[in-house]
Amino acid sequence: MKISKILINHMVEPVGFQLEDLRIEFIVEADRFEEITKQLKIWTTDHNNPVYQSQQQVFDNNYFDVDLKLTPRTRYYVEITIQDATNNTFTKESFFETGKMNEPFQADWIAHPDKATQNALFKKEITVGANVTKARLYATGLGIYEASIDGEKIGDEYLTPGVTAYDQWIQVQTYDVTEAFQKSSTHELLFSTGDGWYKGTLGFDGGMNSIYGDQQCVIGEFHVTYEDGKTEIISTDDSWLTTEGNVTKSEIYYGEDLDDTKTVANWQPVMRLEKEKSLLQDRLSLPIKIMERLPVQAILETPAGEQVLDFGQNQTGWLEFYNREPKGTKLVFQMGEILQEDNFYRENLREARASFVYISDGEEKWVRPHFTFFGYRYVKVEGNTQPLQKKDYQAAVLYSEMARTGGIETTNPKVNRLFQNILWGQKSNFLDIPTDCPQRDERLGWTGDAEVFSKTAALNMNVFAFFKKYAKDIAVEQNQHDGMVPMYAPAMGNSDGGAAVWGDAATIIPWNMYQVYGDPAILRQNYSAMKDWAEWIRKNSKSRELWTGTFQFGDWLALDGENPALPTGKTEEDFIASVYYYYSSDILAKTAELLKISADAVHYRKQAQQIKEAIVKEYITANGRLAIDTQTAYAIALYFELVPEIQRPRVAEDLVARLKKDNDHLKTGFVGTPFICQVLSHYGYHKLATKIFLLEDFPSWLYAVNLGATTVWERWNSVLPDGSMNPEGMNSLNHYSFGAIMEWAYTYLLGIQQVRPGYQELNFVPHFDYRLKQVNGHFDTPYGNFSVRYQIEADSKHTINIRLTIPFGSTVNVKLPRGENSPVLVNGEEKANGCFSLTCGSYEISYIPSENYVEHYHSDTPASEIMADELLIEKIDAIDPVLNFFKADPAAVEGGLGTMSLTKLNTLLPFIQITPENLAKINEVLTATPILNEREEATLV
Question: Which of 334, 347, 346 is nearest to 308 (CA)?
Fold first, then answer.
């Protein structure tokens, strides 16, 4: 037994963060569960004189909610001790450190006098005393800044201070600079700034610039502590000097121009700004870091004669290269996501220049941009005089520092690639805010995209702190818009918004984070904003108990719209809006109850019920028929349980019927796509859900995989089957929303189903399918790693083998499909059936299901599948000559007739006349014959 990890507010050793609602949690690793106790001690300087110490408590959860008044600029050490029944103790230590908290800044905001300066530098030469024991920098800058001491960059994060509504709050970063100050007594302190989100151009159609300000500036305090206890503060003030750096232009969309031939000179006194300091706050943003580096996979020479680097993976970050060029050489690097006719292509980036231009100083060294980022796979290189070499280039992948927590693998390489694409889409777009895309002239924190993907995001990676910051971004904007949620947050000066699904990010994202992590801190932080959103809907709707009469996005990018020019789909917008009005009200009722705000709980429970009743009255008949016959309407009616339980099977049947009319292909957009496979699997149609999931033609998830996608696309057909870009426009090839299907994969394919918030108790209910016979995956729950590996049809007896690893402190309720009446072996011990509970440990489980998972043909099998199986043809020929029609006319198999079953053809076509007796025999043969793929795999016939 051991404590393997300690997290403070879901982070490892956080420094300088806002730490309200302090929660300290820990992971215990053990071979089995046993009763233990837990104890927490927190101290600052003396272990024997703690500032907080809990009682020794029975371990009934793995966290401590700590009521401790913190002081600014203080390191707190944490020790957790667990003890077993025989008094064996196990301990682990960690720490956290506060920033300035509410302590006012002594430092001044400083700026370059010329507002047009593209790269303002600020420096100060200092001398510090000997025997420095501790040194910290508390700083921020606008728009983006980097700080250095003696030419060495401080810290390993980039694009600080991140993106916020800078006119409402500005994040301060805390850096440990002790080691730098201990090297010598004299130092050069330097800040370098770029326009970033603060001053640069952002938004559609050319965008706006200087949204939050028109002058780069910084503020910072170096706090130095000496061995004798004396302290010193070195602040930004009018003693600092400023000039212009080597970055001649940089913006988020534009990219960066870096001229290393330019001599940095002409230092002059800074301008001290009378800028508001009350907006300064300790950070919430996770640091943006270089989380991975990718090598060049190929250097291409295109038919157009271009030199292109292919990194093999669409991603977000910047290009780093080793400069070998002589002084004065101008290198131009353009970024793109895809090739067209094997040539470089960037038209889908719209107004974004997305280039890095470098003028060499002749020095051999690694070079990178500083104040921008790109979404790309391909880089066109121009201007080089030296041959390109793979070793001289690498892609630095930037995203917020989030630990990977989940993953799934199957024996289907295309499915595995899809899951990788979904994860890469998340990495690419979780750069301080959840952007819609990382490459074109947008890169904004779209609320709808984030909302539909938030549960999948939390299964893939530890995103609690990430979304807690974004939830504040939303709340800040609501405060400026009378409770309305804008289309994206920060809103970048745009006041449009107030749409269902998108706006409901205000309630759904905090609720989803509570569900996954079991921590109500994000609900407490955002509760008033959640209420404000529901009240905005109430005040602006044209109906009393439905949400009608306001702008809506509908089922964005759905394929069933009656007007192909409109991307809102066929599902009535007011229906979608009213459903989400109900769901947000329901979330508010549950949140108020959780937070013990009883009056609100009663109010919103009543409101939710009234909205639900109004939806049923307007859109659903007494027998459960929906007035809107679309895939999305059925999916959300089932997912949000709008109809009584007794009628839900009928609604599920209607969804299946709708899908059959649509040839079992998706027509859903942003709203319906996350739910359709989930409700199918939940209501007994897992085979159909898996069929839809595994389709490879348009529209499907694997369609993009077959066309070489390495991330998820914005549209189902952003790229057409011939490889050309869809001419409709708005074609991001790195847009994660449709990747929300992975929640279905975790929940049903892998079988991990939450019972209580935080996964202290969960159900393991895998849904097996013959097309995915082997699956393994894991989810690092707040209690530790829960892993699953299974194989169905493992032998001729149809044995199912499962391996589970369950973390300490979790209880897993196992319910094995087709195992209700089958004996099950668990680590060699027999259980009467497939329903039982397990606690911490590793388990080998095997059983023979009551019905095997070998797939057979059936009476609805289309003629085209029959004609592809020679054995089946032979069996049917022995009964009836019906297949002679298709043998004589092979083209009929490829046409519409090939999609119909023999039963249906016998009903529709006068020249196909199978007697009832023969048809019954044919259908018996079909149901008795394993499909061709099954026979090839298992040699069952």
Answer: 334
